[in-house]
Write a structure and sequence with these properties.
293 residues; alpha/beta; Rossmann fold; seven-stranded mixed β-sheet; 10 helices; 13 strands; disordered N terminus; binds zinc ion
């Protein structure tokens, strides 16, 4: 197992859960073309739009029950490294500072712009955003992680999915979701709910694996993001198409990571990382989108 998949990310093992083929959430086509056999689960590519999707898809209720204490242990061990990567991505995307006139013109004098992190894990990123002047709130499906973030950072973190938090319309100036959308059974409905809680002109930042990246193409079923927990794997093109179809306008895109740490030969890492970033073939991508007014 270790030789076959040296760099896969945290993953649930395939379980005997109900699974069914579903219409593509981007274009509605059924019957995608088989792409990768990962041993116990498979990915396929949509004939209509090219969106990479697990096929068949595991039952949504079963998916929601996977994120437990084991996930918290993984997140707690990695929270500062992930926070720093997320802050770098936000800087790369040119996220405006909370004091920007962009936010000030819409908020009561003296109030802070509001940031929501969906899938906030331990809340480490929100803690950093709050230090920078944001009013921070989180949503986290893994209840032990949400409890950890409330206790350690004193952050308001709702345990559950975004819809169950029942935020009022137009609550947030920034919504951030890193490595979340690829886990969702219904990414289109998620984006609709995100759009509902965003103020007009607010910013959405999404980060997710890049199915059109160099590593995905090279490694196929052995790619670290070809895991059972990832239900949809986007490219820049399919992510942009889905965002536009739900009323967002993509303004900036970045990809990064050409060669995973631990992959041999190691001397390829620096030049491939630089090339991937220039070419859009990086392993992970982030986009900054705005809600159309
Ligand atoms: Zn499709």
């Amino acid at each position: 197992m270790r030789r076959r998949a040296p760099v896969k990310t945290f993953a649930t093992r395939p379980r005997p859960e109900p699974r069914a083929s579903r219409p593509c959430p981007l274009c509605g086509r059924i019957g995608p073309v088989p792409l990768w056999d990962c041993g116990g689960f498979s990915f396929a590519s949509c004939r209509g739009c090219g969106l990479v999707q697990q096929d068949p898809q595991p039952d949504p209720a079963a998916v929601a029950s996977r994120y437990d204490g084991e996930y918290l242990a993984y997140e707690e061990a990695n929270q500062l490294a992930y926070r720093d990567l997320e802050l770098l991505a936000l800087a790369d995307l040119g996220l405006p500072e909370p004091g920007s006139p962009l936010f000030a013109e819409r908020r009561p004098a003296g109030s802070r712009p509001r940031a929501l992190d969906v899938g906030c894990a331990t809340g480490a990123l929100l803690d950093a955003l709050r230090d920078r002047g944001w009013d921070a709130a989180g949503v986290e499906l893994c209840a032990p992680a949400a409890a950890y973030g409330r206790a350690r950072f004193g952050l308001p973190i709702h345990a559950g999915d975004l819809a169950s938090a029942r935020f009022p319309d137009a609550s947030f100036d920034l919504v951030h979701a890193s490595h979340l959308i690829e886990h969702l059974s219904d990414p289109a409905s998620f984006l609709d709910e995100v759009g509902r809680v965003m103020a007009p002109g607010a910013i959405l930042v999404l980060a997710t694996p890049n199915a059109d990246g160099f590593q995905a193409r090279l490694l196929g079923s052995r790619w670290r993001s070809a895991i059972y927990d990832h239900l949809y794997l986007f490219s820049l093109r399919t992510l942009r198409a889905m965002l536009e179809s739900r009323g967002f306008r993509v303004e900036r895109e970045v990809t990064w990571g050409g060669w995973a740490a631990g992959l041999k030969p190691a001397f390829l890492k620096a030049p491939l990382d630089a090339w991937a970033k220039r070419s859009g073939r990086g392993d992970v991508m982030a986009v900054l989108a705005r809600k159309a007014r």
